[in-house]
Amino acid sequence: MASSLQGALAVPRVRAAGRYRLLDKYFYFAMSLLIAAIVVAGFSQTVNRNLFHPAVPRPFLLWIHAAAFSLWVVFFILQSALVRVRKVKLHRLLGWFGVGLAAIMVPLGVTIAVIMGRFDKHVMHLPNTDTFLIVPFGDMLIFSTLIGLAIYWRRKPELHRRLLFVGTCCLLDAAFGRFGFLDKYTLYFFAADAVILFGVARDLLVNRRVHIVYRVALPSLLVLQLTMIYLYRGAPAWWSNIGRAILG
């Protein structure tokens, strides 16, 4: 993926046609607000009974995880706004805070997946907890890869902003999964992918071509997501045994 993206840097950017200048100018900021709206709408379905007023108190680390996730959404909005008002120096300075936050979120996400998996299995007696581990584990692998590439190419704006956008969208399966229908039929991955498709549409309208980030990331994501669904819902014995060993 890295070599393919690097090769794309030689392709000059196509300037936006006049009627699409507003789309070009405000797309990423608008998407940051849409992402925030999805997060609020999704987690509002469950946050009261699972966090604020649960029948059985949740592990304290869940509060830390929720705060870090919320902070990332706020950070993404702020960074998009700073670029929009041309505060590039402040954007780059604040970016190092984002690096630190992402570095915390990944191990925190893995840790809380195990803690909540054990809680759901041994306290709440929920089904499929062993195999569900692949979902948060996979999310953290995808997020860390995309955000790591965004940090590496932080001085290549066309790569950087798309990688951040896709990486943040990949966290939305957690919000979409709070909607019963999407959770029941394991459609939350594809709902998150649908948000990424707004980026594809933006590129087609503004640049008249789809950027290589989307051309590489979307097929790769689809393969990974289908694999995650298979391991979760298909529950092959070898993965069930791994999950059982982790959760006890």
Question: Would you kindly provide a written description of the structure presented here, covering whatever features stand out?
Answer:
- The protein has 248 residues and is mainly alpha-helical.
- The protein has one domain (19-247).
- It has 13 helices and no strands.
Structural key phrases:
248 residues; 13 helices; single chain; mainly alpha
**Could you tell me the number of beta strands?**
0
Q: Indicate the structural class.
A: mainly alpha
List low-confidence stretches.
Answer: 7-14
SS element count, helices:
13
Q: Mean pLDDT score, rounded?
A: 92
Helical content stands at over 70%
End-to-end Cα distance, whole Å, is 36 Å
What percentage of amino acids are in beta strands? under 5%
Q: What's the overall geometry?
A: globular
The rounded Rg comes to 19 Å
How do the helices and strands follow one another from N- to C-terminus?
Answer: HHHHHHHHHHHHH
Count the domains: 1
Largest sheet: none
SSE diagram, text form:
Blueprint: H1 2-7, H2 21-43, H3 47-52, H4 61-84, H5 88-123, H6 129-132, H7 134-152, H8 157-169, H9 173-176, H10 180-184, H11 188-206, H12 212-234, H13 237-247
Helix pairs in contact: 2-4, 2-8, 2-11, 4-5, 5-7, 7-8, 7-12, 8-11, 11-12
